[in-house]
Design a protein that fits this description.
heterodimer, A: alpha+beta, 12 helices, B: alpha+beta, PH-domain like
């Protein structure tokens, strides 16, 4: 029995394949800066092309078993969506100047529309993402998205956020279980306990850093004021980095390791807190000190680390997934929702 | 022309390694065993945007596609846009020019293009929304910062007469303006201009300058300058413009946006309003000159207001927007140089 299990584990491990990322910083920097330049001199008209080309570069350089991902959004559709969104924004601004009530009403409408916009936006991002010429999709409905993304998080305020990890667990489970690759749904069952582990681990790290920085600052403040300010700044950036890396590592590992596309693929994520904290910390530093110019470097090394820690095992049906997204021109409403660019 | 790669069937995740053969306008896709998969004409095929380091993929009209294995594969394409962009990305001289000019362009956009657009659109805004906006602001101010004025009515009458007669002398429409008086501990010695032409003088300001009517007048004319130049409306349009630009133009290209959305916009705002203070100062000096009052009276007013560090409350953003700003020394120097 034990031997059998080990054998099975062995074959399972053997089938795991690293996701590969081949993007290069120098190459991406050239693409990114030219796109930024063209967006500015065209006063933003080029920006949808910039978005598509930048995203395509990152997606197409990501591959599993030699097949590249792709981002298939049409720049011209994004442009239309953005023009409509900007037009709506200006319309509301002008109307609210004349009728203050319009502002309140549009806030309420926006609040009520929020789950719908979220659904459309998630669905748009995923439908534009393809692997082996098959699109992903998100099939959330208004009621559930309202419940998981708005109402439960709102309720958790009254528990002094103590229920928040459990709420977030339910929200991501809902989100993953409504995600499709072609005609196949993802399947995920997550544990609230793991979310609490992430929550308390993060709290522990933050408390530790807080105390150390506090002591260092106090000790140095009298005689070396410059040094104490430096400690404060480093501590502040470290806290930002830890918040992203500790939570990100534990939750990403847990969600990937407990999600699959039955008969198509399963995943194994092996991120570690220490190296990832280092990456996020230096990323923030680089962005601040380069006034944003380091962005391509940051994006590439992030992708490199994330792909190097993610392995995928494909199964027998990987060849038999049916693409359900027809290449129709998506409706204007979809474009507008896409223009809000909400990402979870 | 023959190219090796992977063929992706339409409507499913099925793939096979394949070879493409192009003869003139004719395109054939063959499996590695030599079986014909697809035969079509060049005009039915969509070529993807060319991106350095990645092969051009082909999309066929039935939804299937072909991705070359060689990264350097480029098909003869008619998409000029895609070609120009890629050429820039691969040209060192162009890249250096772009790297240097992009920050300058962002600067130019923020500090010249948007303010100019804001200035010309602000002039198109009619009185009705300005009145509404001012009404809202006034309610907020009355609730939070204002008490009834304790200055005696004779003095107030004198100031009113002086103010409105000066407007007449300058050829400005006195009906457009309304002078109001309030006591405010929070604002200290201050004057505010609302977009609809309402000007508010605090008791603190009157107490400081009551013996120097010309100087008090110069402060009022500074506020008139804000109104004549539509400053508050321009600020609103500018922040809207900056918001849109950073959401869409730089928003995709994150990094920059993350930095600017934090402290950056605040910085831009204070710089915008700095320009506006200087513009209002100039308006005051030019107007004073028309009615033969030397600009020294205005300088005296600024020095007096600033003298005991009685800065306007810096906590409320709203108050910051509307009040006289505290970089007095620089402003005094600029007025002297006029």
């Amino acid at each position: 029995m034990v031997v059998l299990l080990i054998n099975e584990l062995d074959t399972r491990m053997a089938d795991l394949k690293k996701t590969e990322f081949e993007g290069k910083t120098e190459e991406y920097f050239r693409i990114w800066i030219v796109n930024l330049f063209l967006s500015i001199i065209t006063l933003g008209i080029y920006s949808p092309w910039a978005k598509v080309v930048n995203t395509k570069y990152l997606y197409q350089n990501l591959s599993i078993e030699g097949h590249r991902f792709d981002y298939i959004a049409e720049p011209i559709q994004i442009l239309k969506g953005r023009i409509i969104a900007v037009f709506l924004l200006i319309l509301v601004a002008v109307l609210s100047a004349y009728f203050p009530a319009v502002y309140m009403v549009s806030l309420i409408i926006l609040f009520l529309l929020f789950p719908w916009i979220l659904n459309r936006s998630l669905s748009f991002q995923l439908r534009m993402t393809t692997y082996r010429n098959v699109s992903f999709d998100f099939k959330g409905d208004y009621g559930n998205s309202f419940w998981y993304f708005l109402f439960l998080p709102f309720l958790s305020i009254f528990t002094l956020y103590l229920a928040l990890p459990a709420v977030l667990r339910r929200a991501s489970e809902y989100q993953i279980n409504k995600t499709k690759f072609g005609n196949r749904y993802f399947k995920s069952s997550l544990l609230s306990s793991e979310y609490y582990v992430a929550f308390f681990t993060l709290m522990g790290y933050l408390l530790g850093v807080g105390i150390v920085i506090g002591i260092l600052t106090m000790v140095t403040s009298a005689n070396f004021p410059v040094l104490s300010v430096l400690f404060l700044v480093v501590g502040y950036i470290l806290i930002i980095a830890l918040s992203a890396s500790v939570w990100g590592t534990i939750i990403r590992n847990h969600t990937f390791n407990n999600s699959s596309i039955p008969k198509v693929a399963s995943f194994q994520s092996t991120m570690e807190i220490k190296p990832y904290t280092g990456i996020v910390f230096t990323n923030v530093l680089a962005l601040v000190f380069s006034l944003g110019l380091a962005y391509p470097w940051v994006a590439i090394r992030n992708m490199k680390y994330l792909s190097s820690t993610l392995e995928v095992q494909t199964e027998e049906d990987i060849d038999a997934v049916i693409n359900t997204i027809k290449e129709e021109n998506s409706a204007v409403l979809d474009e507008v929702a896409g223009a809000f660019d909400i990402e979870i | 022309m023959k190219v090796q790669g992977t063929y992706y069937f339409s409507n499913s995740s099925k793939t096979c390694s394949a070879e493409i053969e192009i003869i003139g306008k004719h395109i054939k896709v063959l499996t590695s065993d030599g079986d014909l998969v697809l035969e079509t004409e060049r005009s039915f095929v969509k070529i993807s945007l060319s991106i350095p380091g990645l092969p051009d993929s082909l999309k066929f009209s039935d939804g299937s596609s072909f991705v070359p294995s060689e990264k350097s594969v480029r098909w003869p394409s008619d998409s000029l846009l895609s070609r120009i962009a890629e050429r820039l990305m691969n040209n060192l001289t162009a890249l250096i020019i772009i790297l240097v000019s992009t920050p300058l362009l962002i600067w130019f956009l923020m500090f010249t293009v948007i303010p100019n657009i804001a200035e010309s659109t602000a002039e198109l805004i009619p009185q009705a929304p300005k009145s509404l906006l001012s009404k809202g602001l006034m309610e907020h101010l009355e609730e939070n910062f204002f008490l009834s004025s304790e200055i005696d009515s004779k003095k107030i009458e004198t100031i009113e007469t002086l103010f409105y007669e000066t407007l007449d002398d300058l050829g400005l429409d006195r009906k457009k303006y309304l002078l109001l008086f309030y006591k405010s501990d929070y604002l200290g010695a201050n004057a505010l201009a609302l977009p609809d032409g309402t000007i508010i003088l605090t008791d603190g300001m009157i107490e400081k300058l009551i013996s120097y009517p010309d100087s008090l007048l110069s402060v009022l004319l500074h506020e008139v300058g804000h109104i004549e130049n539509n400053h508050s409306i321009r600020l609103i349009i500018q922040s809207l413009g900056v918001g849109i630009i950073f959401t869409y133009l730089v928003g995709d290209i994150q990094g920059l946006a993350e930095i600017v959305s934090g402290s950056g916009i605040g910085l831009l705002q204070s710089s915008f309003s700095r320009e506006m203070e200087i513009e209002a100062d100039r308006f005051s000096v030019v107007s004073l000159d028309k009615i033969n009052i030397p600009k020294e009276r205005f300088i005296f007013a600024m020095e007096t207001i600033d003298s005991d560090g009685d800065e306007p409350g810096s906590n409320s953003l709203l108050v910051k927007y509307l009040s006289t700003h505290p970089h007095t020394e620089e402003r005094i120097q600029l007025v002297k140089d006029l």
